[in-house]
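Continuing the batch. This is chain 6 of the set; chains 1 through 5 are on the previous pages. Same settings as before, nothing changed between runs. Recording input and output for traceability.
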Amino acid sequence: SGRSRIYEAIVKGENPPEPGVPESFNVLVKELQSLCLEVQFEEA
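Output for chain 6:
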């Protein structure tokens, strides 16, 4: 999980990993797709 990776980075003195897409957002996308809505992503 993300918390584990952050903790490991802190303990090892490394830079934290780049944040990704929250799992709650992925769940929302799957729910929209189940309603036959097409979801497309654009990089910012």
